[in-house]
Every structure is written in C-alpha cells, then in structure tokens.
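User: Hello, can you help with two protein structures?

Assistant: Certainly.
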Amino acid sequence: MELSTKLYILGDDGSKFLGAGVLWLLESVEEKGSLLSAAKSMGLSYTKARAMLDNLERNLGCPVLDRRKGGAERSGATLTPFAHRLISLYRGFQDDVKAEADRRFSSFLLSLDKLMEEENEQRTI
C-alpha cells in the first residue's frame, strides 16, 4: 500500500487557486519565457492558463507575472520576485505536509496490520 496526496489551497469562495498545477505553470513560464509557450507545453489552452494565473493573482492580491506586450522582441512574460518566493514557500510547505502525511500513514499501516492479525486470529478460533 502507498499513500497519494494532493494539496490545494482554496479561496474564500471554496474554489482551488493554488496547487501543483499552478506551480508547474509558473515554472514553465519561467523556463519558456511566455505564458503561451508554457500553456502549449502543458497541453493547456492559453485562455485556461491565463485564467489560472489571474485567479491566483486575484486570491493573493499580488502579481505573479511581468507581462511584456507589443512587438516580437517585447512579447512574453517573466515571473515576479513574489512568484519566485511563492514557489519556494509552497514547495517547502508541500514537502512538510507530505512528510507528515507519510509519517502518519506509516503509523496507520502498523495499526492496520495489527487489526488484520487480530481479525485473522478470530477467524481461526
């Protein structure tokens, strides 16, 4: 058995705005230099990718992209310093939560093994 966890941060309205997918998108923007290229590389439409980041910015109240407009040499996007710190902060948080979940799961498995042994003993009586 193994444990699988998915971690999301929800806004006041109960909708997801921060999770692994948004972080992958931010990291892809950093790598590709544009939101359009990042979206394509992830199999997302530009509209969906833009909505994800707009939702993130709206919920946090801070910009995550510096968007450049106009002309071929000025197109694209880069991450803001806030976005870089957000990625680092969220990755650390995610690692801590997963480590704690793994620790608790190990304890659960020990208890489950004991429960199963007790059940099997009762069946053989």
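That covers the first. Now for the second protein you mentioned:
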Amino acid sequence: MERKNMAWNMIGSLIYAGSSMLLTALVNHLVGTSQGGIFGFAFSTFGQQMFLVAYFGMRPLQSTDIRGTYTFGEYRLARLITCTGAVLFGIGYLLYQFYVSPSGYTVEKGLVVFLMVLYKVLDGYADVYESEFQRVGKLYLTGQAMALRTLLSVVCFLGTLAVTRNLVFSSAVAVLSQGAGIFLFDRKISLTLTKIQYSRTQNKQWNILHDGFLLFLSVFLDGLIFAMAKYAVDAQMTSTDNAVFVAIFMPTSIINLAANFVIRPFLTRLSALWEEKNFPKFKQMLQRLTSIIIGLTVIALIGAWFLGAPVLGAISNVELMPYRTGLLAIILGGGFFAVMNLFYYVLVIMKKQKLIFLGYVPVCIASFFLSYWFVKVGGINGGACSYLIEMLLLMLCFVYQAGKVFVTEEKKRRNQWE
C-alpha cells in the first residue's frame, strides 16, 4: 500500500504540476505571447492566489487529523464557505481593476482572469476530497483523482483553444470540464469509501475555519510572497514580459513537484513520530527529506546552466538567453521555497501555527518593497533576484522556528526521563 500510495502520488503530482507548468507555454504557441501573458497572470498568479483563499490552509490540518477531530462532512462545508469567499474576493479585485486602477483591464483580460478564478476555486474544492483520501490512508486515490481531472480539463481547454483560437471561450470550457472532473473522479470515488463520514455537527465548520485561520493567513501571505515579483511585473511591464517571467518560473514547479513526491507520503508518519515523541527518528527523517530537496535543487541548477534558457525558450516561444541569470536565481529560490515548505508542514505538525504566521508577516512586507523596486530597476532579472532573496529569508525563518521548538520539546522529554 505504501508503494502504491507513493507511485500514484508521484503520477498525480507530475501530471498536475506538469500541466500547470506547460499550459502558458502552449497558449503562447497557439495564440501568441501577448494573450499568453494574460493567461499566465490569470492562471498562475491571481488565479493561484484565489486557489489559496479557497484552500484556506486546510490540507495540512485535514490530512494530519488522524484522531478524527472533524468529519469529512464538516471539512467539506467549511471548504464551500472558503470557495464562496474566494469568488467574491476575485470579483472585488476585478471591479478595482476596471474602475479604480490607473492601468485598467480590457474586457478580454477581465473575463479570462475571472474564469481562471473559477477554475482555481474548483481546484481548491476538489482538494477537500483528495485530502480526505490521504487522511484515510489511501493517498493513491488522491493521485488518481488529481491526474484524471487535470487531464480532462487540460485536454478540453487546449483542444478548444487549438480549434477556436478564442481564449475566453476556451477558459469557460476549462471551468466546465474541471467541474465535471470533480464529479466523476472525486465525488464518485468518495462514495465508495466506508471510512469517510459525511455526518456533521451544526456550526462545527466554523470551528475548522477558526482552527485554520492563522494557517490561511499564513498560506495567503506565502502565496503573495511567492508571486509578488509576478504582480510587480504585471503592474510595471507588458503582457509579453509577463509571458517571459512565467517562462523562467517554470523550473520552480518541477522542484516543488519533486519535493512533494518526497514530502507528502511521509506527512502522516512524521505526525505519528511527533505524537509519540520519538524525536531521534523525527529528526532523522527530517534531515533525510531536506537533503533530498537540496540534491534536487543542485541538479536543477546544473541543468539550467547548460540547457535552461534555450530549452525553456523553445517550449515557451520566447527568447530567454538574456535572462539566464534570472532563471538561475529563480531555481535557487525555488529550492529555498521547497525546504521552507517542508518546515511549514513540520510547524503544522508541531501545532505552532502562530509561529508560521509571525514568520510570514515581516517577509511579506519586505517582499512588496523588494519586488517592486527590483523590477523597476532591473526588470525581469531584477524580479527574479527579489524572489531569491524573499525565499531565502522565509526558509531561514521557518528552519529557525522549527529548530527552536524541537530543542525545547526534546529538553522537556529528557527532563521527564531524568
């Protein structure tokens, strides 16, 4: 079962991250880099931010809730509330862009952004099912559902775009196919599992939202920090520049994908070791996971130095040789982000959500000024360097916080034995 879980988690994560990585590149080829830049911002920047609102930081809570504090029915109702909030947030953002922002949005860009908000919110809703599959010990079902619904929506979107060359209509098809995928591959699978409890206690969904609120703020700030350079490029440069910047961000998806291969299958085990206060094995597993992520980052840097710019440029239909420095900075920053993500989960397991939030706030404030200033001064390469600095700061902050908690708990355990 463990091998099956790991294999399907890898397949599902590969298809999910790989399709996300290549979508903008393929849109560039089909309808040009100007529309590709619009789609890239809508899909991978603002749409992803709205996914985080829908997601609400609940996956770590739900997938590690091995005591069954809340039922699936309660988690699902809580997720419906956050998804509604994400859609309303997205509408508010678009109203601001149309009527307040000096740059302004065209009708086409506004529609594409709104449709990608709906697409990503549905993605966030699907996660409540896939988190539950993981919680009941069937991570392979998470991978299967993720793979199948992603393939369905991506094939429908790209097929429609290839035929019609209409980005707005194709985005609407993507939304409809995403909804169909959830019904076919998440909801139907969930009905076959007897361990999933659909019952719910009245108003208990608010307790979930309360428990996860700091995690939500933390994840939301994490998304802002991760994408702040993209927002800076969108605000100060052209849609074509957006397409270039999204292209050099592609390797971060590969690194995070590989990191998830390593991290996700061991979350439940890490939770159990922490609950058992088996600190030596907990530390050993954490060191091993960190070493693997570092190794993957080094391999990615070597590959990018020799092949990154020409290969990614050909895939994305943009010229990337002037931005090789930025590409390497993005990859190194992606490695820092992957390590940070591991220690984020560690702090969740340690039940130290406040420390996560306190780590994000100062880095988020710093990232706003760093990103806009670096992009203004250095353009795309400047934005990439700001991302590297921000990820380094965040990683160091989380590693320090988790290490401090670990040392404190280890001392308490030792004193008890004495």
